[in-house]
Design brief:
mainly alpha, 0% strand, elongated
Length: 559
């Protein structure tokens, strides 16, 4: 009987040997929960990770890895108590590099870059730091150094981090370090090398999309950002279009696409995309702001101002909104309002203030605040000699102040850039007369008048400048030149009556021509009759003008 029982027991043990488990120790159970917590972290299930690690701490409140586990989960969830867990882990295990890594991440996320660098330094010095976390420490320390302006230090950290990754996995298929290194190189002015990194980012994103098509929405957004950094805005716009078509993308994707279209100077398409977005969210401030700018570029200034007014109400401290509206108002020639917008934009965005100085100088010139305009324009041109608004402001203000020599270069530059501009030809003509360069003065004046034949002002400028030329060189006042001068004045009269200041040079020209012996009587009579009619019309407007009264009498007597 005893042997049968022993045999049965022996068989039972043999049969159940594979299923039998010895009970886990407390430490083993805590470690098992910590491992499960880290598995949840890897899957991105941060709430479950925090709960699992908290259960581990209920079993063993003196176990440093459990505090680290919960600290990392809290960090991912944006819970500020993550720092307390990391400090407790460090108290229990002073050699823990991972605790300093978590503390460094907290400092980095809170914008404390200097403190983050010090924490990451400690993490790398400690002996207990998980090998697969070493690259992350280098990555975030590089980002912290970049924020502090330590470009060389940031670059070295990206190199070290990438080298560690290659050592761990044999290759590096993540784009984060390439993207960061490209950003550093752009700030170093190494555009070609930065572009090379960004192209590698695109290559890795393409590989990821092929292997994990479900991640396409997120990856398409990253592709669009990379294409934008490579200044391929058409490709970025297509990425956003693909994102919109392949998912129920939020309005933000439409706005990002519109932004790329604007950068690609496809303003009409941008306007259409933004209009579709605003049908969904009529009060979206970014959409209103972007459409306002697109409409400025489409020369729809009134519509632009309407959009930007709405955007400004929603974004009262956005300097760009004021800046865009200033451009629209400048184009509408509402210079007081434009100047007010420029000054507000500069106040709200001081780092961008210099970009608006040229437009401010132009607005000041158009408001006849010439001294201020010229002073500011000279500062602008010292920084940016090719600034169109800066040159235009200098030319207008300098000419108005009679300080032509100071703006000679600006005038020549404007005429070279816009040879068909009657305005800038006219400004240079006036200055050339001031320099007694009458040949150049007359050439510019005639070109300006020919470009805008309906402009009375340009016609009068031409007539008065030709008269000034004859006054400067009396020997040139032969019959042919006087006839030419008379024709210039007659053209001005056809476009509008002369005032009291304009009449004297016209009257003197006609009187001098009437004295020429070869002038036929019929033509002489016509010239004097027309001059008298203009003189009497001008005198009616100003009967107290003694000089004008005498001129009219002289013309009447000459008949």
């Amino acid at each position: 009987m005893k042997s049968i029982l022993l045999a049965a027991l022996s068989c039972g043990l043999a049969a159940g040997a594979l299923a039998f488990e010895f009970p886990l120790t407390r430490t083993q159970r805590v470690q098992k929960l910590v491992d499960e917590g880290y598995d949840s972290l890897q899957r991105g299930d941060y709430l479950r990770a925090a709960e699992t690690c908290a259960r581990a701490l209920e079993l063993g409140s003196d176990y440093a890895p459990a505090y680290l586990c919960r600290g990392e989960a809290r960090l991912k969830n944006g819970d500020p108590d993550a720092g307390q867990d990391a400090l407790q882990a460090l108290k229990l295990d002073p050699k823990s590099g991972d605790a300093y890594r978590v503390l460094g991440m907290l400092d980095f996320e809170a914008g404390r870059a200097s403190s983050a660098v010090r924490r990451f330094d400690e993490a790398l010095r400690r002996s207990k730091l998980k090998p697969d976390e070493v690259p992350n420490v280098y990555y975030y320390r590089a980002r912290a150094k970049l924020k502090l302006g330590d470009l060389d230090g940031a670059f070295q950290d990206t190199e070290h981090g990438m080298a560690v990754l290659v050592g761990i996995s044999g290759n590096y298929f993540d784009w984060s370090f390439y993207s960061l290194r490209g950003e550093i190189r752009r700030k170093q002015g190494k555009t070609a090398e930065a572009d090379k990194d960004e192209r590698k980012v695109l290559e890795l994103l393409e590989q990821r999309m092929r292997s994990r098509p479900r991640e396409a929405p997120e990856l398409l957004k990253l592709k669009a950002e990379s294409h934008s950094l490579l200044r391929d805005f058409n490709a970025a716009a297509q990425d956003y279009a693909d994102l919109i078509s392949k998912s129920t993308a939020a309005v933000s994707a439409q706005l990002d696409r519109a932004d790329a279209l604007i950068s690609a100077e496809r303003f009409r398409e941008a306007d259409e995309e933004l209009t579709r977005a605003l049908l969904k969210e009529p009060e979206n401030p970014r959409a209103l702001k972007l459409r306002g700018y697109a409409r400025v570029r489409l020369n729809r200034e009134k519509d632009a101002v309407e959009d930007l007014d709405a955007a400004q109400r929603l974004l009262p401290r956005d300097g760009a909104v004021f800046g865009y509206r200033a451009i629209a108002r400048m184009n509408l020639e509402d210079y007081p309002a434009a100047l007010s917008d420029i000054e507000q934009a500069q106040k709200l965005s001081p780092s961008e203030a210099g970009a608006l100085d040229s437009r401010k100088a132009y607005a000041l010139a158009m408001l006849a605040r010439h001294e201020e305009a010229l002073a500011l324009a000279r500062k602008v041109l010292a920084r940016a000699p090719e600034s169109f608004s800066g040159n235009a402001a200098a030319a207008k203000a300098g000419a108005a102040l009679g300080r032509c020599e100071e703006v000679r270069q600006a005038l020549d530059w404007l005429v070279e850039k816009v040879p068909q501009s009657a305005e800038y030809l006219g400004l240079r003509a006036g200055c050339r007369c001031q320099w007694r360069d009458f040949s150049g003065c007359m050439t510019d004046s005639e070109k300006a008048a020919a470009l805008e034949p309906a402009s009375r002002r340009l016609a009068m400028d031409l007539a008065e400048r030709h008269r000034a030329y004859l006054d400067a060189f009396p020997m040139k006042s032969d019959e042919a030149e006087l006839r030419l001068s008379a024709r210039f004045f007659e053209k001005a009269v056809q476009l509008g009556p002369l005032d009291a200041k304009e009449m004297p040079p016209y009257g003197r020209t006609v009187l001098e021509l009437a004295q020429k012996p070869n002038l036929q009587a019929q033509e002489r009579t016509r010239l004097l009759e027309e001059a008298l009619a203009s003189c009497e019309a001008a005198f009616k407007q100003n009967r107290k003008d003694v000089q004008l009264k005498r001129l009219c009498r002289s013309i009447r007597k000459a008949r």
